[in-house]
Structures are given as C-alpha cells and as structure tokens.
Design goal:
Elements: H1 8-18, E1 29-36, E2 39-44, H2 54-72, E3 78-82, H3 93-103, E4 108-113, E5 125-127, H4 130-155, H5 159-167, H6 169-179, E6 189-190
Parallel strand pairs: 2-5, 3-4, 3-5
Antiparallel strand pairs: 1-2, 1-6
Helix pairs in contact: 2-3
C-alpha cells in the first residue's frame, strides 16, 4: 500500500507513472465518503484532477459506482453529476458534454445535482472534476468546524445554556461524529492497477 499525508498532486503523479491506471481509465480519482441526511454518499473526484475532459467524468462515475457497491454492498447506486442546475443544458462545457456521455452509459444516471441538494442524499455517487470536488470538500470541512465553534459560543453564553449543553453532551458528540472526517480515515485513489 502507498499512504500519502502530503502533496496530493505528487502522489497522483507518482502512482500514475509507477503503478499505472487500470485499462480504460485515463486518470485516477479520489473518492470521499460524505455524510448526508439519510446515510452517506461518495464524492468523486475530490482533488486528484483539476483539469478534466468529459470522458474522465464518465470514468469517475464507473469507479464511483464500483466503490459504492464495494463499501455499502448495494447494487445499482444512483449517480449524479454536480453542476449549477438540474437541466442538461446548464453548467459549463465540461458538464454539458459529460452529461451527454453519462446519459448514454449503462449506469443508474440520475442527472445533474446542485449544491443545495448534495447533503440531502439525492444520489449515492456524485461526480465532479477534482477542482470542484476539492473546493467542496474543504469548504464542507471548514463549515462543519465553524458550526461546532458557533454552537459552543451559543451554548456558553449563560448558566442556563451551559447546563443544557452539559445535559446534551452525548448528543453533541454524536452530532460531531456524523461529519467528522476522522471517522472515515483516508480517501482511496481509485483507478490504479494495484
């Protein structure tokens, strides 16, 4: 196994050259398990490829589908593409062209998904390029951390709130665990031969 705690770009480049990708996969992708209102979903690519072609998003969808099946033991997961609108004509050139490819593939393609629906688990696998995925991942982690700080500030304003917070301490631990990235460990780089 290869474990990287550092520069993602260097790790991706090294594994692509040394280990090589699977047949039919041009670029490996990072798959991250994300929390949602009703379970979990997989975000792919979460930062390995900042510049993608439409075919890469199609390959990410296949890898995400296989990984979802492996982790959650569910066949035929729904796959959506992150975009600025649900319609196939919305988005940039990358997402519009990728939509055409994904629509013709033998997968359970649910169409586009917007950011405001992401954590409602309207799809099992969400596909995007690594630039968008990495920004989304880091913004989500930051928002979760900030929310915990805001809650701490609000619940320590006076004695009544502090008492309530003490009584609800185990509930806050459960809440923190839902979105804690440490709960899931690392994110795999999919699409490599080994």
């Amino acid at each position: 196994a290869v474990v990287s705690a550092g520069h993602t770009g260097a790790a991706v480049a090294a594994t692509k050259v040394i280990v090589r990708t699977l047949p039919g996969i041009e670029r490996p992708a990072i798959a991250v398990i994300m929390p949602a209102v009703n379970g979990r979903f997989i975000l792919i690519d979460a930062g390995a490829n900042t510049d993608c072609k439409p075919i890469h998003l199609a390959q990410f969808a296949i890898m995400g589908e296989a990984y979802y099946h492996y982790v959650f033991h569910e066949k035929n997961p729904s796959i959506a593409m992150l975009s600025v609108g649900g319609e196939d004509v919305k988005g940039n050139d990358l997402t519009k062209e990728a939509f055409k490819i994904l629509s013709g593939m033998p997968i359970n393609f649910a169409g586009n998904i917007e950011g405001n629906d992401l954590f409602m688990k309207t799809a099992d696998v969400v596909v995007c390029d690594g630039f968008v995925g990495n920004v989304l991942l880091k913004a989500t982690e930051s928002m979760a951390e900030a929310t915990m700080h805001w809650m701490k500030d609000v619940f320590t304003k006076n004695l009544y709130r502090k008492t309530g917070a003490m009584l609800a301490r185990s509930a806050f631990k459960d809440l923190k665990a839902i979105g804690d990235s440490e709960e899931y460990g690392g994110a795999p780089l999919l699409g490599l031969r080994k």
